[in-house]
DNA sequence: GTCTATAATTGGATAGAC
DNA sequence: GTCTATCCAATTATAGAC
């Protein structure tokens, strides 16, 4: 991996752990093993590097979600696989985390990939949920878009509860709860 | 309101907007209309002031939730009232927001009020959900603790989706989705 | 209790040598 | 492309006068 990629990867990790305001160019350089000059050669500054990092994290999230949601199995099986897949729960979501950063949400270009990713994720889930309704696995008459928002919110909120408790237990409870509601019908 | 309270209130606002790492003592002082000396007279430093601010916000959240959850009405009515109450969705949750701050979750004393508040909120909701099951309003056989985690996660995650989209719409969708799942039975 | 002065450290970047 | 030197503002305090 070249220096430019190392910088992007280090920025991704630090944005995940500490957010945009909590991450300094110096910290990124040190983690990447690069000097000042190197970073400012490849990027105009902190913001442009963060932009590259956010875009890459956003792409990876959607790709990972697709591998469960577009995989084999019934709608309920795919949604269950997505919700139950192994996650580093206490680290939170590398994309959702960015919504808590004032400088990210205030900057249209930095917010755009976050918005696009979560919006597309909901759209993918709504498709699968719609398929489940058509197949009679899920109750008809409920808005797939609303249910998709609920499912994604359970994940994002589950991370919040887990980090507050310093334990993955409430995350797992929240996932179990929504799966039970979806499948009890 | 005296200077000490002004400082706590200003700290609460800034912690809500910018988090712990994004908030400087100077910014708190300026918002409070107080000088350096004043702040360091009342508090030993940023951390102690933040501790007072976090505790106050945590207390207020639980009090506000109780006013809906312990109010009149059936279990479903109270949960609906709680989920549908007016919120400044794009500002996010003043308590849940803190879980994204590395310095908050790494500090047991700062994390404690956040943890206690979200844990108690889930316990209150589990009680109400249990009452709803006993009254036949909600499907029996589902774990009230899991459902409570789901409901709180939908709120916390709804804020994430809304801030990403810069719109309250996905928050409202997520709430509608979980209410539909709870009441369709 | 509040004010102003001072200070060590970090943040975010520029300049120029190699 | 990468390095070191330099720069100015902000951060997080402490000291002492009033």
UniProtKB/TrEMBL annotation, chains A, B:
<feature type="domain" description="HTH tetR-type">
    <location>
        <begin position="1"/>
        <end position="61"/>
    </location>
</feature>
<dbReference type="InterPro" id="IPR036271">
    <property type="entry name" value="Tet_transcr_reg_TetR-rel_C_sf"/>
</dbReference>
<keyword id="KW-0804">Transcription</keyword>
<dbReference type="Pfam" id="PF00440">
    <property type="entry name" value="TetR_N"/>
</dbReference>
<dbReference type="InterPro" id="IPR011075">
    <property type="entry name" value="TetR_C"/>
</dbReference>
<keyword id="KW-0238">DNA-binding</keyword>
<dbReference type="Pfam" id="PF16925">
    <property type="entry name" value="TetR_C_13"/>
</dbReference>
<feature type="DNA-binding region" description="H-T-H motif">
    <location>
        <begin position="24"/>
        <end position="43"/>
    </location>
</feature>
<dbReference type="InterPro" id="IPR009057">
    <property type="entry name" value="Homeodomain-like_sf"/>
</dbReference>
<keyword id="KW-0805">Transcription regulation</keyword>
<protein>
    <submittedName>
        <fullName>DNA-binding transcriptional regulator, AcrR family</fullName>
    </submittedName>
</protein>
<dbReference type="InterPro" id="IPR001647">
    <property type="entry name" value="HTH_TetR"/>
</dbReference>
<dbReference type="GO" id="GO:0003677">
    <property type="term" value="F:DNA binding"/>
</dbReference>
């Amino acid at each position: 991996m070249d220096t430019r990629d190392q910088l992007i990867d280090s920025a991704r990790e630090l944005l995940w752990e500490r957010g945009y305001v909590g991450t300094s160019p110096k910290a990124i350089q040190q983690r990447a093993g690069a000097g000042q000059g190197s970073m400012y050669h490849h990027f105009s500054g902190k913001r442009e590097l963060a932009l590259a990092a956010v875009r890459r994290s956003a792409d990876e999230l959607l790709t990972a979600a697709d591998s469960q949601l577009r995989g084999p199995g019934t709608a309920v099986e795919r949604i269950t696989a997505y919700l139950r897949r192994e996650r580093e729960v206490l680290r939170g979501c590398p994309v959702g985390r960015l919504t808590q950063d004032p400088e990210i949400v205030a900057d249209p270009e930095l917010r755009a990939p976050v918005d696009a990713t979560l919006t597309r994720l909901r759209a993918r889930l709504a498709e699968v949920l719609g398929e489940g309704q058509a197949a009679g696995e899920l109750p008809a008459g409920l808005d797939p878009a609303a249910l998709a928002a609920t499912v994604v919110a359970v994940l994002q909120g589950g991370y919040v509860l887990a980090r507050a408790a310093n334990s993955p237990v409430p995350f797992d409870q929240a996932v179990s709860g929504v799966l039970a509601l979806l499948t009890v019908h």
